[in-house]
Batch of 4 targets.
Target 1
Amino acid sequence: MKATFCTRREFCALFLFLTVFAFIFVLRHMDILEFQPKFNSTIIMPRVSTHPNEIRSFCTFQPLSPEDALEESLILDSTAWPETPLLSAPISLEQTSDPAHSTFTILPGRKGGQWHVGDQLEVMIQTSDFQGRPKKSGGDFLLASLHNRKLEAGVAGQVVDHLNGSYSAVLFLPWEGDAQVEVTLVHTGEVISVLNRLNREQPYRMYYKSLFRSGSLSETTICNICLRPTQQPLCNYTDLRTGEPWFCYKPKNLSCDARINHYMGGGKENLLNANEEKLFQSGVNLKVYIQASGPASVTVLPQKESQPQEKSSTVTSGPSGYYYQGVWRALGGTTVREFNASAISQCLKGKVVHMYGDSTIRQWFEFFDATLPGLKKFDLHNAETTGPHMSLDNTNNILMTYRSHGPPIQFEPMDTRDLRYIANELDDLVGGPNTVVVFTIWAHFGSFPMEIYIRRLQSIRRAVVRLLDRAPGTLVFIRTANLKGLTTVINYSDWFSLQLDKVLRAMFKGLNVHLIDAWEMTLAHHLPHNIHPPPPIIRNMINHLLSYICPQNSS
């Protein structure tokens, strides 16, 4: 029997019209389909956005699973910063918190004004504006710590925002003797509101570049996690395994496959209006000490074993450790001990140590390379700042590697073949009791939306779980974020680092991994804050790491 489909002329014409229309519709809308092609070097013709300040209006990311989406939402809620009410439009500097008019007061202890080792010291902080009027709202970013320079002692405190212009700082008293309180206003709440706005409206204000080359022809274009649409097509370098997005504008005369390097391009300028710029004043309201209204120090007496320790009801956890005589002492976990070069070699004998991350973890590789006489660095003809690097101690059978995390990474030009994501590197490891993995990832994500960072950590966490499932004896360490010096605030603020640090800790809570608390180790130390902590702090971090690898009670 003959087919009877399309036997009438009018039906055939209608069918042909619908088919052509559907084909044209698909072609015109392929760039906004939910699932983008996952092939490297794919050319994409970007669509034009009518809402250029909203991330998702022109950026299409792979959809999250329901579980990951819920986790992202919960983490964003848990790290939300108190909003600062707009006192006037525009906000004037005089209305914001002034450290010169703000004060802190040490509250009397419950033991007749006496404090003993193990107690908690409570400090009340009252902020006032530049006219001396008490603030009525919270949202300021404050730091608190205790120090004794003679004893080379220090411990980080916790600050609680009461949302009414007053704050409490709770500080653990771990040593006997004098303890000096230090309270610092890092940012006012109004400054944080501006930083929040920048990350919302200018999420890709840091930009990157890549060189494309074929023979004598070369071109350079701008690259990023997401690029604002223009008439210029995009090269899609989304990672096939992790789904991490990365794009470059396609060169006019070269293919996407001609990309040979990656490097930091720069940052957008003039992002603040004239009024906002007045809120950022070095030496006035950026990382400035707040003075005490009375005594700024207490004398700590020996611990009384017969008397229970005081505990504050405003905090739920204490510090991770403290310094005493320049040595970091952990409060929980392993006992930290000091390692000389010989002890380090003995501890790492027969082990492979892989380090992944940014320049703050490269410091650790450089420490080992400079400290261990038997460790010889291979010349891989890479720049010192970019790596990758590899060193070998043939006598003690120690292999040590360093590799930077994948983009965004703000380094000098590096080969695109060296741009690898931590999750992929972990998936390629065999693992086992003689394998040590150390990674950090935070410093290059401050100016990006937090969702980008959460998704990157979710990818890494899945790889960590897979590694520990197939090789349970593998030791995994995470170096947390740390305080920085007072650099370009709108891109490198300590507040960005604090938010990233909170997310990092939340993401890996409950896993069989060990945190090296760089945040507290920099806050508790008397040396100035620096994105690259000075050698005494690095040595203490290494001692903490090695104390986990080689516990004192191990044979």
Target 2
Amino acid sequence: MEHAPLTADHAFINSTVHSVYELVVAIPGSTLAFNYLKNAYQDDPFRIALELFLVFFALRYMLSKKYKPHDNAVKLTEKEIDELVEEWQPESLVPKLSSYDKFNLEKTPMIVGAQTAKTKVAGYTKPLMNLATTNYLNLVSSEHIRQKAIDALKNYGVGTCGPPGFYGTLDIHMQLEKDIARFLGTDEAIIYAQNFSTISSVIPAFSKRGDLLVVDDRVNFAIQKGVQISRSNVRWYKHNDMNDLERVLNEIQLDTLRHKKRLTRRFIVTEALFSNYGDVVPLPKLIELKKKFKYRLILDESQSIGVLGRRGAGVTDHFGVDAKDVDMIVGSMASALCSSGGFCAGSVEIVDHQRLSGSAYCFSASLPAMLTISASEAINIISQQPNLLRELRERVQAFRHTLAHKSLDALIDVDTSSGPDAAVVPFFHIRIKPSFLASRNANLSREDEERLLQEVVDECASQGALVTRAKYVDDQERGLPRPSIKIHVTVGLSKKENDKAATIVKSALTKVLSSKWKK
């Protein structure tokens, strides 16, 4: 069968294609490109389709209209710009102080010179007996520690200027970690440069999103921040109530079984000695529940380290419990140990994990050498001089006995542990009894109650004793405690001075509260 003759159109198309083909072939390397496309299409047609799509997309992108951020900006004249500048009022860098803020600033005492058991305060001619510091064992005044700190300053300088994991670790840092572990009875310990950020770093180092924290609902502010930063699931139990803790743990266990939830890391978080209430956690029962329900325990010993127990080793020493039964013992070195920073003690794995996962450890300059050596020496003194603890408990008992006078029964509540624990807690909160306010028909706001307590503080100062109101971050605190005066007992005062200070506090309370309202 004969083919139909080519039309003029067909001839033109063939001629054009042939010319284009000859032009392309004349380009160096074009033969290789044709062979590549032919083989790629035969072996993998999807690949050539994808590559062509990408080529067309790139061409379209390069040829599209370019976006300019200020294309739609409003054009202002010079006059309009000047008018806007004149009308603009910058926001204050520091918010305006309320009358209550000004009151707190005015009533903040200024210590002149070194802090001691009898310290000089601006506005007072004679030194005041200091009941406003956590210097329980009076180690701040230790000449031995002071000289060791001076020697460390000369040998190591003021600071390390670097985080521990880089070039901030000194031999004395490692020695302090060994001293803490030996003192508490744990395998190892790690130290942090800031006491507040220690617990708020330890918690999120172990508990992450999706994990579970079961927390006492009256823990201190640093723990609250650590719980918040961790972004874990949180269940709260009633303050220091082991029956309620067991109820919460049972509910979690039943809920897990019922909904077949995946296994997550789970922790119980609490304080050993509660800074806002002065009561001691019932550790044996807590450890029993921890083991029964298979939880890890994070215990904050910031207030109890150095003062509780036969050796001053904290609540584990107080109850005779093996410190290794507590997974993480966290504490501050800024109270009884007369230094700064904090620590976390536990197993080797617990400590090693924090060296890379503890944010406050990794991203903060390490503890200055002079403060490091001060903490080590404080631990040595506490270990070698158990009489300091006996003296402290005698002072506490004497102070409490004075405040237990029947003339104060109707006026105040003294928040602290009951039973045998009461004699070993070196601080307590004094709060006005609600029944006393009700009997006077006094419907006071929180600010009014703070101002009333400040009158007691001022009266104590006028008689020679420095005390302070307990301070809180009111708008962020969970379960904000009622206003209180916080008393700290110290062996820096002699028995006679301690009794005198207690009498001053008693007298100030009676004078201010009894004369405020006349029946």
Target 3
Amino acid sequence: MGFALTTSRLLFVIVISVLSVQLVRSRDDDAQALLALKSSIDVHNTLPWPPGSKNLCDWEGVRDCFKGRVRKLVLENLNLTGNLDPKILSRLDQIRVLSFKSNSLSGLIPDLSSLVNLKSIFLNDNNFSGDFPPSISGLHRVKVIVLCGNRLSGDIPSSLLKLRRLYMLYLQDNLFTGPIPSLNQSSLRYLNVSNNQLSGKIPASPALIRFNESSFSGNPGLCGEQIHKACELPPSVSPSYPLVPGRSEPRRRSSSSNRKKVIKIVGGVIGGFAVLVICLVVICMMCRNRREEKGSGRMKKGEEGRGTEAETGTGGESGRGGNNGGKEGGFSWEDEGLGKLVFCGAGDSYRLEDLLKASAETLGRGSMGSTYKAVMESGFIVTVKRLKDARHPGLQDFTARMELLGRLRHPNLVPLRAYFQAKEERLLVYDYFPNGSLFSLVHGSKTCGGGKPLHWTSCLKIAEDLATGLGYIHQNPGLTHGNLKSSNVLLGSDFESCLTDYGLQVLLNPDSLEEPSATTLFYRAPECRSIGRPPTQQADVYSFGVLLLELLTGKTPFQDLVLEHGSDIPRWVRSVREEETESGSGDDPASGNDASEEKLQALLNIAMACVSLVPENRPTMREVLKMIRDARAEAQVSSNSSDHSPGRWSDTVQSLPREEHLSI
């Protein structure tokens, strides 16, 4: 018995030692790989490696790392030259983001197949040559590919269809030839293949039909609907007749006679068709004149079917609420003062007329205005937000704000695609998200209680998505979301969480006496709940903490807690934690949930730091994101497939064996 125990302990010590050696070795491998990389491409010695700090995470260009492993390497505008060695890069196997943008690197793009965690590749504005790197098509986590501004040639491979998460593909200003593959990923939001030598018809797949001429310009051999250039049909083959002596001339006469008959028939058909078209045009004009007498009121009638603000995001079927929620005709208003549809960045392949004729379905109504699902005649779908106040702020301030928001591009933001300004109308056009909102995912169609259980791994993933998107917004000085809540988080094609309705609070009229609704009020920081108080980045952090508590407890901040306990969600969580501490039951080993509670505790601690009543005590979103990533990485290391721990902190608390515990 003693020998068996000694042997077990010895094996345990050996395993721990091996793991420790591997961990240290992996850290050293990344450092050695970076030094080898510097030696091969930094002939001008612009990279200060190794720096004074021994911590790899402090090295210039290492933007993100965990336990000494590099996860984001950004080496841009450093005049790096030479070829990238695939053997060196393969040692950095934890890389998520790799950027060598705007250097002088040359040769072939190396084999990246060993970088299985890679999500974003930025190799643009260098001197790379050769074919499109085939290894990229095998990296199934890749979302962003930016290879523009090089000398790449050959075909754009159809194997890109394997990348089901593809979000951005920028290949412009290269030497690519051949056709464009029929990309069909619904996740594709940004595409540019301009200024190459591509040819053939642009596929009319749903993923490609939405992009306009700017995405394909500079390729004279291309044709298709997106660039308004018809594809030429191959010349018809003229019938040939055998030159039989004595019979060739009669055949020609017969052929000429047949042509005359055909011309007469076709001429008669065209004439009759022209008369029919003229009649139809006259009838349509008469009908249109009648409709214009009633036209400007259709949108206002449509608002009768609006849903509640809690159920509504900027898109999403599950956000549909209200009394009828059905189709309600197109967008209409008086022609007087009709403005212009302004696209943000590269425009989509539709015009103002297409949007005006689109059928509109009410998705809901919020503090900013009403939201619609607009289906154009081509079948293309967008989400349109009709702002409540079309007179505030002034045109110049409104345009400046739209240009600022239109420049924001991030995988965790719903992009603003276009805006419209007229005398009495202001419209914002966004991508349509058919998977609905985070509110619907957590709570279903109800506005209180009974939400779907989310596993703690899902909570961590959602938290990281939201913190990443919000952190990107906060990189712009003074810019805030201003209205963060679960109904303003939409689910993308890969069920990634994307923020919407960001940066719009400045469009509210400060002289308005309208009180914020309960669905908004309880997400707001205490210092911003009074009318007219502008949102701050610290207030965004508070709202993020409330949203995180909503995930962890399954409670709606604006209804469940107020009705059941007369308290907002941060105060309720504080009271439960204090009760746990006083009773000591949270440390009871008999609960059997120590592991799951520990995993959820990290998220709970982050949320509680965010909802501090003192704004100065709240962490920045950059700090929040680092804490979440550390917690997620730690959870991935410690988790296993047999883990069936509760998905919510409230589930863990509820399972603790104490009868006097507050009912949840």
Target 4
Amino acid sequence: MSTLKERQINAIKTMLNLNNPANKLSSAEPVWKILVYDRVGQDIISPLLSLKEIRELGVTLHVLLHSNRDSIPEVPAIYFCAPTVENLGRISQDFQNGLYDAYHLNFISPISREKLEDLASAAIQWNCVANIQKVYDQYLNFITLEDDLFTLRHQNNETLSYYAINKGDLVDTEMESIMEVIVDSLFSVCVTLGNVPIIRSQRGNAAEMVAKKLEKKLRDNVFDARNNLFHMDATQVGNFSFQRPLLIILDRNVDIATPLHHTWTYQALTHDVLDLTLNKVSVEDKEPSGGVRNKTKVCHLDSNDKFWTTHKGSPFPTVAEAIQEELEQYRSSEEEVKRLKTSMGIENESDLMLNMVSDNTAKLTSAVNSLPQLIEKKRLIDMHTTIATGILNFIKSRRLDTFFELEEKIMSKATLDNKSVYDFLIDPSSGTPEDKMRLFIIYYICSLNVPDSEFSKYEAALEAAGCDLSPVAYIKRWKSFSRMSLNTNQYEGGGTKTVSMFSKLVSQGSSFVMEGVKNLVVKRNNLPVTRIVDQLMEMKNMEKDDYLYLDPKQFKAVEMPRTRTSYQDAIVFIVGGGNYIEYQNLVDYAKQKTNTSNNKRIIYGASTLNSGEQFLKQLSLLGKEIS
């Protein structure tokens, strides 16, 4: 069955084929065209298709809508943009200037009747009605980063952040606008998957507002005989099996310790310390001694990179060892080519052509033919070495391994070692002020009771460490109001029962040396979101009052289903921002369930994806409103 990512890629490829059916995509000669997109459209396409793939689809030029563009006659122009007033104004300007002979207008989310009429008026005014070939609503208003991971927005994503939804001066119209954006995107996800989900959500918060608005939008479409987007041809199937998927909508307030947690899996670490954005990361590639300066290297991490797909969820020490193993394999392959050449006295390719007789020559020809794959393998090894070295530098300078291990013990209620949280806060060699603040907030949230005298002692230690105390003010109020804070047993730890593995990792030039990785036993625990997902998918211990049950296909509201069968498929969406730690925890849960019972498929989505520092900044903004 196709994944969310595959379905979105197919939709974009069909669009770039001038909205001809997918079976015509493989024509021998593509129609040459240009692609005009806004920043939102660029963000949607960039994690899905490389420049090479876009060119192979016949796109000779791709340009931003709001850039200076020259007239290009006789080539169709495909527009892919949001139907905003600014974008429609610029399209009208293109009509006026007669930039293209054929316009294929594709809107990321549906264009309203009023705006469509304005666009038609502009086309009539500038005498280019005949040039407009097609106008399409694409329902692609979301960004897919992995087969099972999506986020809603990259440009202006602060408008959908935890801070934006929880700030003190938020007015009803602003909240309504945020909810509409989220619902529009979730509706697009459902249309792309081809399924009407059953919706479960928390009560009494932003998640409930999103759930009810989405249910109405889905219901209106399902019962609209003319415009039903979920009627499929006999040749089409939805992304899921016969059973409908469960859409679980949760509010970020269900767990605000995990977004601050220091982590140790490869993808989450890359996001936390190197700012992984739209599957790209910039790393300082240090020059060898004597070099002029450091270079910034942009690394693309996608599903074509087998090392990344295999190890993105692995503990960092395991990744470091895997890089070393890959490097050794590459070197042995390279040495084999050199050895064969030397034994046969071959210096160049012309010598090879003259000596194509022996068995050794056949072996060498095979080895030479595999050189492109070897070169690509070496490029990936070098890239991951650069990324891992960058991560390792942060681990060492900020002692991130000790923060991770201490937070794991706090969240799993394990007995702390000799060095307490307070000792970490006053230790000048431990981490940045932000690292210390993240540690303290996790400790405060997971502690049943912190006496005022002890709390003041911690505050003084944080202040002495140079911390901004604004987040503490917000967390104190959040804990007093939050029902979830009463249940401090919701945390079991996010990653593993760990021994000090980070500290045994040392970098020697381009190689990594690990001690005892083979003996590393990872015991994974379920985070709060994963535990809720497990309860809802397995239909266990869930009272009807805890979570809304909404079925857009039912005429009348149903409080709970008649049958209590478990679900195979779920879409988990976090209003107010998600993170790679939760995503990986759900991936591990689905794998574990697949191995033990029936297959589980889970897609994780969030309004935004935040690193620990980004989320801490939002808490700081909220705290400043209080103080």
